[in-house]
Structure formats: C-alpha cells, structure tokens
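Aim 2 progress update. The chain analyzed this quarter is reproduced below.
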Amino acid sequence: MSVTPFKRNISNPKTESIELNRTDFVGESPQLRMVDCALRLTVKTFLRLWALTASFPWPAHIVDHAGRILTRAEGVSETRVGLPGCTATLYTPETTDSDRCVLYLHGGAFLVGGRHLHRNMIGRIAERMSAPVLAVNYRKLPRHTISDAVEDCVAGYLYLLEQGIPADRITVMGDSAGGYLSLVLGSVLRDNGLPQPGAIVAMSPLTDVDHSAKLAAPTNCALFPSSAAIAFTKLMSRRAGGQLVSPVLANLTEFPPTLLHVGRREYLYPDALLMAKRLRSAGRTCHLHTWDTAVHIFQAAAHTPEAVHAIDDIVDFVDEYIPSALSRRAL
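Predicted structure tokens:
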C-alpha cells in the first residue's frame, strides 16, 4: 500500500449500541479543492436546473460521450461482452491474477454513464488489482426501470459464474447509483438462492430512498443539490418496475464483507453511515471509511492524492478478504 498523505483517525464510535468498524481520513489536498470548486460551478449548477425540468425529455445518454476525452488506463484492454438485456465491457490488465474478478456497476443517477465516463477509474482498479473487471452497461432511466437495471446486474454476475469464476472470488463494486445496485444485488442473490460474492465495495452509495435524514444533515455536497437528489428519487419511484427498495431495509444476514467509502460532507454521507450500522447490527463484517471531502465519487478524480489513496484502500480491502493467487501460493 502506498503511503497516505492523510492523518488517520481510527475510531469505533458507539451509536445505538452498535460498534462501527470505522476509519476517518483527515485532510483535503489543493488538487481536490480545485475539483470541488469546478463541480460547484458547473455540474451542481446544471443539476439545479435539471431538478426544475426533470420531466423534460433530456437526452441523458449523450452525457456518457463526454467521457471520451478521458484517458484510458495504460496497459488495460477493453472487450465488449453481450449480456441478455444489455452490453458490458471487460477490462483486462496486462498482468492478471486470473482466479479473481470484479463486477463493476457504474454510477450516474441511473440515467447516465456506461462505456466512457467511468473507464479511467475502472481501468485503474483493474490495473491495481491485477484482475479483470466486468463493467455492466445496465439499462437506464427513463426508458427502462430500476428492476431492468437490477436484472442486468444479475446477468453480469451470472456471466462471471458461467466463465468458471467461483462466487467467493468475485468482488461486486459500484459507485453512487452503482453502489445502490451493488447492495441490492446482494439481497437479490440471497432471495434467489444464489451464492454471495466474496466481497462488496460501495462508494458513496444511495442506501435509503427516504431523504429525511439526508435533508436534515449538515452536509455541504459539491455535486448534489438536495432538489436534484429528490427529483432523482421521484423519477426512480415512477420507473421502479415494482416497489422501490432501500438496501438498509433488506435482510442483510448473509452479506459478504463490505467496504463503504464516503466523504463526510457529501449528501449521501448519512446513507453510508446508516448502511454501516445496519450491516453491523446484522452481525456482518463492514468497514466504513470516510474522507474529509465534499466531492462525490472523488475516487474518479485521477491523480489527486485522495483518489490514489482510496483506490489503494479498496485494493487492500479486497486483498484481505479475497487474497490474490500469488498471495495464497506464498502462504
């Protein structure tokens, strides 16, 4: 693991008689503060406008093409994979530990993302883990339902199993809306008698569709105005394809080890904290790692110290619960 520039404050605050396995990282780099300011001036301003006109037929799919300007991770190849309801991209680094794999579920408020916006971060994860990553380009709102997206995520998981990868060698990973899907997937697998993955990593996940706690929290999110977050959830509810599920209310008794990343000033910080409490109360292994930042999915801000540190932290977590083939042979 590379040396972190941040002072680590490791604590186990007891809340509601539940001891959280929590680590707080303190400090914010100048590079990330610049990203914070840029997001407030651009994306957050646009989302305020979108919240007022969310019912308009916005061509949301076009946003993903903005990711074409992002560089690709060096030494990582990309291969298209067909799934029953959608496509996926398999990211393969030059050096692979072929007995483990990642199923990646991208964020984007269930509206945007797919092939381009997340490819740099996903490529970096594949390279750092020396493992292939299957990123599912699940069907999105408003043309499709949340149930369609969940179905596509299950299809991606089954694809990996069909390739001969054992379930306990798979990490399900996602950010924001993809973090929601990662946690919902754990419950869907349990309900259908399918094996759980070896680990789950959720970055700034939506975990509770009730916004009361988030609206009451003293957060200062650089990306999400509360009006946009509420508009997103209303759109989700209209296109739920059934009852809209909150992962915090699911049966969590069989969940695998789970890592939650979040910035302490993010709009979704209360959701990550509540999910950690629910997992711990269910007797499951959960690590809650928080950063002193307001930037939603700061892990994608390549080359900032926080992003480098966060990816290293994810790799350390996966290595602990799903050791690489080389590590196991060394034992």
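Residues 1-5, 9-17, 63-69 have pLDDT under 50 and may be disordered. The domain at 26-322 is CATH 3.40.50.1820 (Rossmann fold). These observations will guide the mutagenesis experiments scheduled for the next reporting period.
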